[in-house]
């Protein structure tokens, strides 16, 4: 999380409690939202600091948009509280919250010109005309749309419309900007371009708190200081991209964020609280992996390995000739798993293999850099992984 830019009070001169600015621009306290009998959001607690971007990342239907609507005031929580800058706004209307919102489908007023769209929130706030004109100009310049002020939305491309929508959301100088899948209506190349633009825009708005809803992990990884992984109306896990990527606390995050393969295994060592390197048996194969939590011998775990972490053992596939039997573990090296190549896909920068592990009935995804000798479907190979690139996660349901 970004550190607050405000100076701490000098020692010996405590600031009176009433004058202390709250650290969090947005705070959800145990917020639940139901639609009839559907629980769309269940007990979400989340705090977003000033200047911080939090991405809500999860599959469709996991409650991301509902969380955003609860912050914006478009949905009333069935329980829990919503705070902005430390003030409880649970019962306040959306207009009174002064939040900027950008949604997937641009949502510009179709009959209004670009400049009128951007001016809309300012007029509603009865800002003097000259100030409105100046603010609209500045906002359109910020998103690179100053040459389009007099056009109607339908005269713009999707990407341009979304730029105008962002300018409109920022015109009221909100302290909080909510974005709900803002790039998902755009085609792939435009999406990548707009993602870079959003990143640049973020740098120009150092004090705004942003909450960014997406199901696309690359958007979350590019923009967010922290990622909140959502699943079945609940917060599954929250952390920096680095934390979630390299040390996921659960199988769902390992699979959803890192695309990891998960091998069922049984612990053979004691790992104390706080974590260490653990030893496990995955089928008949001995493996060592980072264990970020306490494990006891006999405990069921999963070994998470991301596609890029796998390597082909030297000499593979030829070296695998002796592995073709029953997959029994005698004499196997740690973290060496024999498998049969099921498919090979060329992906420009390298090859993606699907490999069926022998003796484990697991199919794993392996991303190899461009190489001269690419295995073919049906080949036997030996996969290896460095212990520090394999991580144990609790054996929860997926
Ligand atoms: P996400 O943004 O992660 O795709 P949503 O927050 O939109 O998920 O939806 C969460 C759940 O709430 C889903 O099961 C969805 O079908 C349901 N839901 C969302 N909006 C409504 C609504 N207006 N009426 C009824 N059910 C809804």
Automatic annotation (TrEMBL):
InterPro entries: AAA+_ATPase (IPR003593), ABC_SmlMolc_Importer (IPR050093), ABC_transporter-like_ATP-bd (IPR003439), ABC_transporter-like_CS (IPR017871), Mo/tungstate-bd_C_term_dom (IPR008995), P-loop_NTPase (IPR027417), Transp-assoc_OB_typ2 (IPR013611). GO terms for molecular function: ATP binding. Coiled coil: none annotated. Pfam families: ABC_tran, TOBE_2. SMART domains: AAA. Residues 26-257 form the ABC transporter domain. Keywords: ATP-binding, Nucleotide-binding, Transport. It comes from the Bacteria. The keyword Protease does not apply. This is ABC transporter ATP-binding protein. The lineage of its organism: Bacteria, Bacillati, Actinomycetota, Actinomycetes, Micrococcales.
